[in-house]
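hey so u asked for the seq, here:
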Amino acid sequence: MALLLGGITLSSEAQPDFSKLNSRQRIAIAEREQVEAATDMDFQNRMAEAHDLFRKKHYLKAIREYEKAQEQRPNNVYPKVKIADIELSMKDTLELLRAKEQEEMQKDLSDRKSEDKSEPARIDETREERLQRMDDWERKEREKREADRKRREAKSEAEVLREDGDVKKLSLEEYQKELAKKYPSGITEDRYEEGNKQIVRRIVVRDGKGNEYKRVEHSWGGVFYFKNADAVTERVWRSETE
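ran it, structure tokens below
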């Protein structure tokens, strides 16, 4: 998918040169990234994993996961901010960890060379491949376990209405009318937790129609916004619910 900004065409994978863009173009790119990242479960799972590693004090591993998240979404600000925060607050610790890691790597390589001097490079490569396969397997298993929960959490009144144990799909117009019947005119807000997320839900009823808005804040700091289950920008959230 391509985006045309003031004569500059950008694909969804491209990382633009922000120095060549004006403020309106930068805002447009940031808002598009905000909307796309809200439904990118692979990115959000990786950020959650990085946050969990940091919480468990595995700082180097956390940084690597944030870096992988950054590679997935180069225009997203969250991985950069988290890496900068870790490097600033844990500077001395990171230097010690990196030195220790380098020492262990050298020791491991030396041990393996002594075991088989004929193919030290291949042995080390096989070890890295094995570790990568383990990481991939753990990630896939984690994503599989999270998949059902993520889908359940993503569901909202905007998607289904339960009647007599059956699920009846609603059109947007029907759903808006249902909200207007259920909630008073104006703004109704409630706050709750779902897993590692803090959610602010606002039902806005005006002129006989209602809309459901959600502000979803992840434990790793990411904040995303939704209107009737579709991702929207913070600007939409503020302008339509405040």
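Residues 1-12, 160-167 have pLDDT under 50 and may be disordered. DSSP finds eight helices and nine strands in the chain.
lmk if thats what u needed
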